[in-house]
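ok here's DoxX family membrane protein, seq below lol
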Amino acid sequence: MDTRDHPPADTPTVGPWAARWELAQPWVSLLARLGLAGVLGFAAYTKRIPELSIESVEAYQLFPPAVAEFIGYTLPLFEFALALLLVVGLATRYVAAVSGLLMIVFIAGIISAWARGLTIDCGCFGTGGEVTPEETRYGLDIARDVGFLALAGIVMVWPRSPFALDRLFGLYR
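and the structure came out like this:
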C-alpha cells in the first residue's frame, strides 16, 4: 500500500480550520491581552484622583465609608498592576482570571445599583456619583464589561501569545 495517499494510523489529521486557528491563536491572544491591559490601564489612570475614585465607590452604597475609601484608594493601583502584568505577559492565565473576576464584580455592582433604583454613573472610567435618571447607562455599562470579560476569557483559555515573559519561563508554549 502506498503511504502517500493515506497517513499512518497514529498520525493525527488536522483540519484546515484547526491549522488556521493554530496560526492565528497567539495573535488573537496578544490582541485580547493588550486590549484588556489597555482598558485596565486607562481605568486606573482615570481614577488617579483619590477623591473622585472614593466618590464613585461610595455612590454604590454597598460599603461603610472606611471600606469605600480603602477601595477607592486601592482599586486604581490594583487595575494598574493587572494592566502591567498583562502588557509584559507575566502569569498571563492567572492575571486574566483575576481580571475576569474583577469584571464580574463590576457587573454585579452595576446590576445591584440598577436593581436598587440608584441613579449613578458606574465610575468605571474616573467619573462617578449621582446622575439624573436619563444619564444612567446600566445596560451599556454591563454589555461593555461583558465584552471585557470575554477578552479575559480568551486570554485565560489561550494564554500563549507573542512578546510575553511567560515564554521566557517556558509557560504556554
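fwiw The first helix runs from residue 16 to 46. kinda neat tbh
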